[in-house]
């Protein structure tokens, strides 16, 4: 089977958790390549909801190796709490989960600095979770970050924490904030070292060995392509590369070993936090999608902003990721509507834009142009393409034409079995028999 990247084509929250869980039987390894514990993947198993934050969704399958790569930033307490919750639910962890030695750690001062920075921005704040993700990536880029491998030498750990705290205290003192205690932070993280050392390993070497043994890898993205640091709605983005290129840099696997990219998109659009959102719906229409789609963050519980499907944003995401196949999720949220709109362009200063603009300040000023599509009744839980309403199939074809990518899978509900496989070419990428078996479980 091919090595495949699964990522979001919107602003995150597209339902990647279910898709990764569904596809996992085709792979020996599931590897997370970016993001932190601000991301949440939700998987439903026979009515039981499992929410994952740092640990790849493949962990719910016995025998699957799950990898946290160097492109991730890891908060040790959050990781250990997640492990404990999974163990309490009966999930096997031992031997199935590893962390790259070069994964950067989120330190206590990162969340503090992020909160201060957001408060200083006022109305122009990004809308981050204030969990220290951005500042951890800042320290990584500034070459002063602390990595998982540093936990294996407490002398080095103490030295690095001391240097960082001295620098951060200089800034905090100028802002009139309480100063940090380097020794207290060291004691906390030295305590984590004993619990984490069993997971820490050389991930690029491990993955190379697994590939040579004939195993295939599913690369799991967090957030969505429109939150990518370089190709998203900058500056209203995350601090890592959530696009497909991040899979290579975030795990140490060369791009020639990636076989395909599968992009996940909702049948409508959502986003969390600040930033432009051309198709956003307000008042009753927006609240209806919010409630029907249960659009609250899996990690934070924050309500998501909701709007119509935006073909320009998804086409842009497919283009920068090389995604020729899409997985369409949550069309059932639109069940029963008389009319559904699809954005096919933006009106900007008297002109019609047919491509996604690079500047957020342009996106903030556009007005969407729409195509109206008649409602389709109900698709929730359906598992046969030929039995789906013609209006829904027309909707799928319209999206494909506008985005210039095929819909390979349709998810009609949260459970594994509520899924329709459409693309016969998936036979060459996946063990479709194993996926279908998983859909029956």
Specify the CATH homologous superfamily of the largest domain.
Adenylosuccinate Synthetase, subunit A, domain 1
Mean pLDDT score: 92
Runs with pLDDT <50, length 5+?
A: none
Number of helical elements = 13
Radius of gyration: 22 Å
Strand content: 15-25%
Helix fraction, binned, reads 25-40%
Q: How many structural domains are formed by the residues?
A: 2
Structural class, from secondary structure content?
alpha/beta
- Name of the CATH class of the largest domain: Alpha Beta
Q: What is the topology, as strand order, of the major beta sheet?
A: 9-7-5-2-10-1-11-15-19-20
CATH-derived architecture of the largest domain: 3-Layer(aba) Sandwich
How many beta strands in the DSSP annotation?
A: 20
Outline = globular
Main β-sheet: number of strands, strand sense, barrel status?
A: 10 strands, mixed
Distance between the termini: 22 Å
What is the third-level CATH name, the topology of the largest domain? Adenylosuccinate Synthetase, Chain A, domain 1
